């Protein structure tokens, strides 16, 4: 989902600064909610360090390929949300992306506002969706495939929508740009097919290893119903 350099240039890039501020504001809200409802400050700090390390590894280690106007990554946003909560996941996505840019991809730093918006706004969306489709009495380790698919599809669909927005905003609706956006969207369908299976596999492991997957490192909701 890294927007390619040159897609949005000049004065147009200032919009990405505004959307990034809004996205980071959502992150602050999710972090505040996590402190209040999901273990407190220390738990959020520990989970955020873990999610930052995981996101950095996802970007650097997992396969990723440039397609059209962006890159196809296996980001596992819904997986991180289920395991660690929305607040820690949002912090991890923002920090991991920034760390990758500072250490290995300085050419991506001008696009940081666009990329962080693309990651965080869909995450906020699926945090709301999870409250609607997962009953308060259901722990996340008991999610169905349909629920995991809905969360993953919503997250990845949000990423594709934001990438398309930045591409059309920066380069217009010319045929070549439209084809590049479509090719990226089609390539991302593979991620939508894989991620729900990863979610269910990780949740099954967490359930089987429940004695190790509880405590301050993990989302309270992973094994417990909502209060």
Radius of gyration: 17 Å
Overall pLDDT, averaged?
92
Q: Strands across the major sheet, in which order?
A: 1-2
Q: How many individual β-strands?
A: 2
What is the H/E string?
HHEEHHHHH
Low-confidence segments: none
Let me know the largest β-sheet.
2 strands, antiparallel
Overall shape: globular
Distance separating the two termini = 35 Å
Report the sheet-strand fraction.
under 5%
Number of helices: 7
Helix content: 55-70%
Structural class: mainly alpha
Structure report:
The protein is mainly alpha-helical and 227 residues long. Helices cover 68% and strands 4% of the residues. The protein contains 7 helices and 2 strands; from the N terminus they run H-H-E-E-H-H-H-H-H. Helix 2 packs across helix 4. The longest helix has 34 residues. It is globular, with a radius of gyration of 17 Å. The model has no long low-confidence stretch (mean pLDDT 92).
Summarize the structure.
With 227 residues, this protein is mostly helical. The protein has helices at residues 14-37, 41-61, 77-84, 86-103, 112-133, 145-171, 175-208, and strands spanning 64-67, 70-73.
Secondary structure layout plus pairing:
Layout: H1 14-37, H2 41-61, E1 64-67, E2 70-73, H3 77-84, H4 86-103, H5 112-133, H6 145-171, H7 175-208
Antiparallel strand pairs: 1-2
Helix pairs in contact: 1-2, 1-4, 1-5, 2-4, 3-4, 3-7, 4-5, 5-6, 6-7
